[in-house]
Amino acid sequence: MLLKFTKMHGLGNDFVVVDAVSRKVYFNKAQIERLGDRNRGIGFDQLLVVEPPSNPDMDFRYRIYNCDGSEVEHCGNGARCFAKFVLDRELTHKRQINVETKRGQIQLNVLDNGQVEVDMGEPSFLPADLPFTADAMQDLYQIQANGETVELTPVSVGNPHAVIRVDALSDELVNRIGPVVEDHEAFPNNVNVGFMQVVSPTEVNLRVYERGVGETQACGTGACAAVVAGIKQGWLDKEVLVHLPGGDLRIAWQGPTSPIIMTGAAEKVFEGQIYL
Ligand SMILES: N[C@@H](CCC[C@H](N)C(=O)O)C(=O)O
């Protein structure tokens, strides 16, 4: 089968986006891994599959797969690219779009400047929601990784994140700690690992070692997780500019029972076709 796709990115976190509204398309794990191979396929961090909704109150459903073939609950940069994709392809003319994902329903708002504002839903700090294995609720948790003690805030923003506050960011740190925490036994479904350097109460630098991918140039859910963890710990204000290697995101959270609001860019790179 000849598969038509669009290559997109959100701050360098790159996607292959497929229209499964106009024509039904299904992928198995081996196909996703092959398409995601940067040498032998197209290459992407995540595959986004746009489908009709199962709920008539929703506009679309979209599925998200990491390049290792695993299906995931949520993707912040992907949500913004999804919104640009359905508008560009005229699958909708709405600029406020309601979407079903594996984590539930999300709302997207395409702004006049082309940026997309996403209501990412409420975070949860309950260990069971990641899941994260803990004896009792704490503010900060410690785990052993590579013979050293790592202090982290576990947070679910629909998908699981471990946020580690650091004094300085380096390749050595991300590559030494990232894979070990991602695959740590305390996280039975594995975890996305964020390394956050607090610059001021309204500004952080962040690098994310993503579950099922490795370090990406940006992670939208990672930015949300880092900011809400920082607010919970008393390190950050309610609106924060997050500097990621691929660019900046604005994240706002008013506190418990409020949704996280993420605002940022989405870009189309090219269209193509490939035999599946
Ligand atoms: N890059 C994404 C997150 C994608 C999913 C993640 N790797 C996971 O396994 O949960 C984002 O922008 O949020």
TrEMBL record:
UniProt catalytic activity = (2S,6S)-2,6-diaminopimelate = meso-2,6-diaminopimelate
Entry-linked PROSITE patterns: DAP_EPIMERASE
Give the SUPFAM superfamilies listed for this entry: Diaminopimelate epimerase-like
The answer to keyword Amino-acid biosynthesis applying to this record is yes
One Pfam annotation reads DAP_epimerase
Q: Which Gene3D superfamilies match?
A: Diaminopimelate Epimerase, Chain A, domain 1
What does the UniProt keyword field contain?
Amino-acid biosynthesis, Cytoplasm, Isomerase, Lysine biosynthesis
Instruction: Tell me where it mainly resides.
Output: cytoplasm
> Per UniProt, where does substrate bind?
N13, Q46, N66, G76, N77, N159, N192, E210, R211, G220, T221
The free-text function statement in the UniProt record for this protein reads:
Catalyzes the stereoinversion of LL-2,6-diaminopimelate (L,L-DAP) to meso-diaminopimelate (meso-DAP), a precursor of L-lysine and an essential component of the bacterial peptidoglycan.
PANTHER family in the cross-refs:
DIAMINOPIMELATE EPIMERASE, DIAMINOPIMELATE EPIMERASE, CHLOROPLASTIC
Q: Can you name this protein?
A: Diaminopimelate epimerase
Give the organism the record lists: Rhodanobacter aciditrophus
Gene that this polypeptide is encoded by:
dapF
